[in-house]
Protein 1
Amino acid sequence: MKKLLKTILLLSTTMLLTVHASENKTVKWKLAMSWPKSLTPISTVPLRVSSLVKEMTNGKFIIKVHGKNTHKAPLGILDMVKNNIYEMGNTSSYYYKGQDIATTLLTTAPFGLNNAEQYGWYYYGGGEELTKKVYDKFGIDSYPAGNTGVQMGGWFKKEIKNLNDLQGLKMRIPGLAGEVLSKLGVNVTNIPAGELYTALDRGTIDAAEFVNPGLDIKMGFHKIAPYYYTGWQEPAAEMHFFVNQKAFNKLPQTYKTILKVAMKVATSEMNTAYFNANVEAWKQMKTEFPNIKIKTFPDEVLIAMKKSTDEVIAKYSKDSPLFKEIYKSQQNYLKKAREWTKISEYKYITTSNSLK
Amino acid sequence: MKKLLKTILLLSTTMLLTVHASENKTVKWKLAMSWPKSLTPISTVPLRVSSLVKEMTNGKFIIKVHGKNTHKAPLGILDMVKNNIYEMGNTSSYYYKGQDIATTLLTTAPFGLNNAEQYGWYYYGGGEELTKKVYDKFGIDSYPAGNTGVQMGGWFKKEIKNLNDLQGLKMRIPGLAGEVLSKLGVNVTNIPAGELYTALDRGTIDAAEFVNPGLDIKMGFHKIAPYYYTGWQEPAAEMHFFVNQKAFNKLPQTYKTILKVAMKVATSEMNTAYFNANVEAWKQMKTEFPNIKIKTFPDEVLIAMKKSTDEVIAKYSKDSPLFKEIYKSQQNYLKKAREWTKISEYKYITTSNSLK
């Protein structure tokens, strides 16, 4: 009888544990961000994923988020996720152009797709498959993590009236855009974000490109450089999540779905949050500093920028077949998508403008 | 001993059931759509919510989706969800203007917010709270369910060259826009969608406004009315989910979060899916029918439309304080948001156009 009792107890305990194991397995992950937790609304995205995943699994799937001050490797997220030091990362794809130049095009491209067009390309124009082609070799799955929308062309102390005004201009502008301007005579420097304000104030640099009002307002450039140029170089910069493939494959099916859904929701929320941050910051800037002048580069400068962009793209396309494939895929989608953009969103604003 | 055995068995069964009850309660809901399941990508949204909720709860929360052919009440979703005949609905808010005229502004407004601006208003400009104010009295929570983007101004058999061309024009155009055009001399008719093609073909009507290429292509208007006018009347038509509040409050906390997250993800997915549907449909239409002419209404017509819109808005604002409050809230957000739209998305396309 004692034996039977023991058997029953063991059996019922096993049943209980089985329920837990299959449906409510406890999983603890860590996520490394390229930024500090204060860089909202960009840093809001991984923090939101963490809290959503916890809620949706009844507290069983925990993702601890580390800001750059914890791991001290803001540009090393790819390696840390590849080596499973962190199961997840939240970063910018183009930081890893040293590992693969094709990573840059997954963030954005000069004169490339706008926000709606880029998501169209990603989900329906081959973008998802090409992203997989870039990151599979690192054992990583990459997912969208929110978009800044159109970035501004930068803050300038003096107006740019022609191509000649670019000669010897000292400017902070990273990424492909920096290479493009370098070919046009700009003296491109890469000063860390923390030192930019002082450099611009003291004349160490003449101009600084950062993001757009939502984040630029924290830098204070508008107080010392009154010409704010409209954008051409990063029309829809997307952030990315990295997930270690082996860690992901070990998750119960339910958690896999929950994680993917949480990333997509947080991404969508960031797009609205960032749009609103731009709206509010731009309103505040121009109220407090009514002398800010919105400028668009003159046609001769834009034409030269486009030509220089084509040269930079051609160079990397020669170096990397994958870069070439992604650029061509994006351009194919852009060609048809822009036709729709022009008669819908664009024409609607034109129409509304004409009534003011 | 037998008693002890029984007690142990009972106890362990109870423990098992408790685990199930608290974390894995089985819930079965029904959702009624205003459309047939074939109306993709609009109908994709509730179907996706159903499948995501099922996956994320390990098959325990089931939402059965009924198309309009099952319940036969495409315009009766509000009543059915209010009375808990269906726990959820998927519909257009403006169908219920008979119950409350303020419902119309939650869908879209003539000359109103575009897609990004409308989500900005909804989440950061008071839209969510005002939506609650509209639907609380029905015991319903309402959530966004995907946006069509800018709708086109309609298909016309003859070009509209001036205000006089609107006099006596027989046109199908529903909602507030119909009232606006009616004041300008248009003979607004409300022919069911299924009969529209024949009516336009036979000259029973001279023009038809439906949606935009993604759905218009299924109607075939482009084969018989070559003038396709750009939009002014529905710059960002949002679909909506309705959820019965009492049913929602009975859900376990985990399921509440999962349902809300699933609705938001499916909404975000639809926005990209619909954008892409427009891109592909527009490409196909103009390839197969190169004689389609994209037109924008002349300034004198647009100015008259705007004036007429203001009159319609003023009339309903007088009738309904809530309509007035929502319109004012949207206009306040539009004013600041449009400043950002103009120097970002809009200027970027202008810049790109100048390089072609």
Note: Chain A has two domains: 26-147+237-288+321-356, 151-233+291-319.
Protein 2
Amino acid sequence: MEVRPPYLIFLGDAPDDLTAKTGHGIVNWRPQLALAQSRLPQCKADLGIPEMSPQEAASAGARTFVIGTVNFGGVIPPEWTGTIVSALEAGMDVASGLHTPLESIAPIAEAAERAGAKLLNVRHTNRVFKTGTGVKRSGKRLLTVGTDCSIGKMFTSLSIERDLRQLGVSADFRASGQTGILIAGRGVAVDAVVADFIAGAAEWLSPSADEDHWDVVEGQGSLFHPAFAGVSLGLLHGTQPDAIVVCHEPTRKTLLKTEIPMPSIEDVIEMTLRAGRVVNRDIRCVGVSLNTCQLSGTETTRLIDETSARLSLPVTDPAKFGVRTITERLLGG
Amino acid sequence: MEVRPPYLIFLGDAPDDLTAKTGHGIVNWRPQLALAQSRLPQCKADLGIPEMSPQEAASAGARTFVIGTVNFGGVIPPEWTGTIVSALEAGMDVASGLHTPLESIAPIAEAAERAGAKLLNVRHTNRVFKTGTGVKRSGKRLLTVGTDCSIGKMFTSLSIERDLRQLGVSADFRASGQTGILIAGRGVAVDAVVADFIAGAAEWLSPSADEDHWDVVEGQGSLFHPAFAGVSLGLLHGTQPDAIVVCHEPTRKTLLKTEIPMPSIEDVIEMTLRAGRVVNRDIRCVGVSLNTCQLSGTETTRLIDETSARLSLPVTDPAKFGVRTITERLLGG
């Protein structure tokens, strides 16, 4: 799945900036891809980049119209259709991370057909993968894993990629979910792959590389989540990581959309290392990433210090303090 | 996925009885479903049931023409097309566990269309599943798990179902793979489900039931196999088993199609119980099923005794000694 840059990022009628999180993610992590934004009149989100119509953006070189808004239920509302059709008529591809396939909306399918443009539903995949082999690949891999879903794995992975590059280390973020794919411009939504091929898709996602190159693979789900653990385990086996970083949200009490208590960070480390040894005997945990947005400054500092002392690992909140302690541990041996 | 009985079982040009293993499985485990067999002239396999042409079988009440042969690569050879078309013209559905979708062969697709008959590719699934919930269901469940793929999980599950029924216990085999589905006449090929829905499909497969009913769920893959562990874990979480039985082949040195050493039975018990506790705190191992077809009688007895003493569990080879020691442990508490 490849999304051609640069992008015109469409925010639709997003009522706030949180709803436009895909757009903000692109501007934050890949500003060079974000040529301009396009918004409907009632939109309250703003990416702080130039405003252009689809025609203006296409003339300025934009190649893909990216839907940068995540709305409830993942549907494409009828009010967006006119703008999406204009983008196709202006010659751009259209990329969406929403559940509704773009081609299921007749005017969009017809406009794409007329223009010979691509409709990219990054949440789905048509690619045929092989089953996993477990054969060791060259290069190095880090996988972010979580005590739960939606807990900061993408943000942590992008933070580590950025920090490694700042340290002069060859590193690539490898996207395994729809938002990550739109940010990186490529990747595979592993939860949309047929079950038999999860590990094979993960092997494809982080291929053989130079010995000193790090692929930073975005994790999915949690080995402890009753709905998504299969995806997490397939991704772990296919990635065959040398290093893992555990992501956690300290105020969450139960696993997403369940009444099952959260596992401890220790549980996740032990289970991940144990399962990961099947494909990489040298797998190790190099840090913990806490999402402390619900905590005060004092609470955050105390929790980080306590957790770090308890686990003898670097612990940080990437959004507040960066990830240098983790990358130093990673590169230090 | 429902396959309507009774069946005309088609063996094609199977060179031996091993190739006709699906047909033999149906006759062995569900003789009441097997009305007759149909074979091409060069066929060397024999199910020991009446021989009928598609027309004769349809007149005698057969409702589904089941392909009972597993051939290398899972393709449907051109020599089979004529007989399959005759079955459709005689008014039967056609069911196949092979990789090639039946409708990909034009004369078969056209004949099904003309006859208004169903083409059932049990290895694929069109059903839309929900994501797993982890919510506890009523009734009891046993899951067979393996140190590896293709190690006797289906055979063990069917043996346990049969033995429980002989003991007067309400029990149902729940098929999770294509051969099992053709034997049971229903089920879901969990490895063909989209990754996000593995656990949800497993929850659907063994629904709420009477408190004293046992669903015996056919396991898939192995938590230690680098290609298929995601399927195994999703199936474990969705099944939320009260009991597991570990299947093992003692002479196998490396995991199927890999160079990775086999895990020990202890490894599999520990990992399965640990992962299974997320959805069922009372999960326990009630026995070990060994496939000892490569061993002599003396070797088999010694290995069973040693393994049983080491693990303090009932250990048996279902094909040689049945599974009564396991069902007694299961029901004994």
Note: Chain B is about 35% helix and 15% strand.
